[in-house]
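Colleagues,

For the teaching module next term, I've prepared a clean inverse folding example: a structure given as tokens, and then the sequence designed for it. I'd like students to try predicting residues themselves before seeing the answer, so please don't circulate the second half yet.
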């Protein structure tokens, strides 16, 4: 491999600290929390530095700002990066927001205008699905703190067959709290949207209670993400049963690597299971690991290249199912049935 010959932008997204939550929809999959050892960030950066000109370093793969020195940490992420800078996106930690009065000031300082918050219904389902008692009330308190500091909250809700009635109750709650009007008062915009989530990681385990298209509460349809592009599984099976293409993910000009606290490396294509692993930074040969990244030579991708969508439908599709999917999410579901075993 020619050193520094790789012109693609590389983002290193590292699980340096872990996550306070255990969301039942988490597409990454649950992993034990572990604070990685001192110097791990520098070591990981140096590992890739000879090969890539442009590298953005992120110290969080899961909940952002889980470490107490998040302000210094953000500066360090920027200092470690080269050629391109890490982004804040529209993310923040509701766990930290209700425990640390300084935190909202930090979000303001780094230019965050909107923070996305995730609900699974009201108190019962949100607490259960986040995996922590009190999560729903923390989300409400975070909403208030954000508004007071002129940052717009964005509420997203994950729906399935068991929580759909509670998710439908979020809409009147947004009205009762006057979230749109209160955001408009400072020039912000409140938004609320609902979706079933992709069917990978932890959410894949909820396939049996994935919502049927006809069971989506009517009041939520205007808020359902890309509703017009969703179909029932039976419909996708009919449409895709003769499809001779394969489901193969591919990097464009940007390569994003998710790195676990065990130094396992994955593309961010779907979840972080064994067959999707590119390799381990501590135990695999570095040149070989870089080659696999550049040539996209992993077990899962090689399996994916050798089976058509039509074959996947015949093996794993349910022609009687009304469970709702987008085309992309359904193909991903089928592929992971094959790659990871059903
Ligand atoms: S979805 Fe995000 S906050 Fe929830 S467990 Fe996964 S990484 Fe943590």
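(Answer key — instructors only)
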């Amino acid at each position: 491999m020619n050193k520094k010959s790789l012109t693609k932008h590389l983002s290193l997204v590292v699980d340096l600290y872990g996550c306070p939550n255990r969301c039942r929809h988490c597409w990454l999959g649950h992993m034990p929390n572990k604070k990685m050892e001192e110097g791990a960030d520098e070591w990981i950066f140096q590992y890739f530095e000879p090969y890539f000109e442009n590298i953005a370093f992120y110290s969080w793969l899961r909940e952002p700002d889980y470490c107490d020195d998040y302000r210094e940490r953000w500066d360090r992420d920027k200092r470690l990066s080269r050629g391109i800078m890490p982004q804040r996106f529209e993310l923040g930690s509701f766990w930290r927001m209700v425990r640390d009065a300084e935190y909202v000031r930090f979000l303001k300082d780094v230019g965050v205008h909107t923070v996305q918050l995730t609900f699974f219904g009201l108190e019962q389902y949100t607490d259960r699905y986040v995996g922590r008692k009190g999560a729903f009330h923390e989300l409400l308190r975070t909403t208030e703190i954000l508004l007071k500091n002129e940052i717009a909250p964005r509420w997203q809700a994950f729906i399935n067959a068991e929580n759909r009635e509670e998710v439908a109750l979020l809409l009147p709650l947004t009205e009762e709290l006057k979230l749109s009007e209160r955001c408009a008062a400072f020039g912000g915009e409140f938004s609320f949207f609902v979706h079933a989530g992709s069917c990978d990681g932890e959410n894949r385990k909820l396939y049996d209670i994935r919502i049927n298209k006809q069971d989506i509460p009517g009041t939520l349809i205007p808020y359902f993400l890309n509703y017009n592009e969703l179909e029932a599984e039976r419909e996708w099976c009919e449409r895709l049963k003769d499809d001779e293409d394969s489901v193969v993910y591919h990097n464009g000009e940007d390569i994003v690597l998710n790195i676990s606290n065990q130094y396992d490396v994955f593309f961010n294509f779907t979840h972080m299971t064994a067959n999707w692993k590119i390799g381990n930074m501590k135990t695999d040969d570095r040149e070989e690991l870089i080659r696999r990244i550049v040539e996209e030579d992993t077990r899962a991708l090689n399996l994916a290249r050798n089976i058509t969508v039509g074959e996947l439908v015949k093996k794993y599709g349910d022609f009687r199912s009304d469970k709702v999917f987008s085309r992309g999410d359904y193909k991903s579901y089928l592929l992971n049935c094959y790659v990871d075993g059903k």
